[in-house]
Structure formats: structure tokens, C-alpha cells
Predict the structure.
Amino acid sequence: MKIQLKFRKLMILLLAGTAFISNEARSQSKTPIHIGFKAGTNLSNLSLSRSNLDSKYSLGYHAGIFTRVDFSRLYVQGELLYAHKRSKIEDGRVGAQQAKWNSIEAPVLVGYKLLSSENATLRIFGGGVYSYVLNDKASILRQVSKSFRKFDKSNIGYQVGAGVDIGKFTLDLKYEGALTTISKEFKARPSSFQASIGFMVF
């Protein structure tokens, strides 16, 4: 609960600061700058090195803010998201349980507008993402190996996807893969499919 309150305060401060910077930039430049909110679902999975463990995709969620800067057909988009992810882990001895983890994620994406009109835009994009794990619940991994303590906090990954803008509303579909592991012992690399809907404040 405390983490969620701190995250909400951080989001408000970041939005206020970004809005101020954006207004200053817009007053000095014709480059379109957009700020908005987004939220959606994650379908996540953990790939594990242990042959006796089987992992499957499970549903989670994410929410946060984004800033986009347009350069004709190209654009750069930064996001700050709170994500709750899950993966179903099955073990023949222990049974099946959910591995869960909460993280702050910061993707930086470069996109290209395939089709663009006054009211609608079709986009593709890709880039990197940094995530910081706030906490995890992976009791089945602790039961399988007593040396397992917790996920590595800092992780780097990549994202690719496509999106559609209709007026001020935006819809994104992404695939996220990992370049680093969140558990060195299990060599666990998370992956997820994400769907989100957003609204550009301006």
C-alpha cells in the first residue's frame, strides 16, 4: 500500500514537471509534444533453466504516463509505468503456483508512422526498457531451491510493437523480451505481451 501511494505521488510530480517542460518547449518550437496516461494488461511468462519446472503465461496489468515527441513521420516516446506481472510455475513435487512481481518500468521507444491522417495514425515502434523490481512473491521457487531469495532488482529488456491513434486515444500492442535475467540461479528471463489504451492530454 505504501509503495502504491509513493508511486502515485511520483506520477503526479513527474506529470506536472513534464507538462511544465513541454509548455516551455512548445512556446519555443513547432515540434509537437504530447503527454498522456495509459493502462492495460500483461500476459507474462518466465523461462526457467530447471528441467523439472514448467512456466506458463498469466495475466497481469500496468498503468502510467507517457510523453511523445513527433518528428514528421518519426517519433520518440518515453513511458513510466507501474507493472504487476505473473507467471504460472508448475513443479511435479510441489504443484502449481503463481510467481508474481511488481516493478517500475521505463521504456524508451522510437516509432514510425506508416499511415497518418488528421484523425488517425498507424504506427510501428521498438526500443529498450529498464525495469526495477519492487517486490516479488515466488514461493514455489524458494521451495524448489533453498538458495533462491528474490528476483534481481534491475533488469534491461526490449520492446517491439504496433499502435493506432484515433483522435486523442491511443492503442498499443507490444512484445517485451529480456536481455538480462531476473534470477541468476534459475536463469529466468521474463517475456510478456502487452495491450494498452491511452489518452493524450495534449
About this structure: The helical segments are 2-28, 139-144. The longest strand covers residues 95-116. The two ends are 31 Å apart (CA to CA). Confidence is low (pLDDT under 50) at residues 24-29.
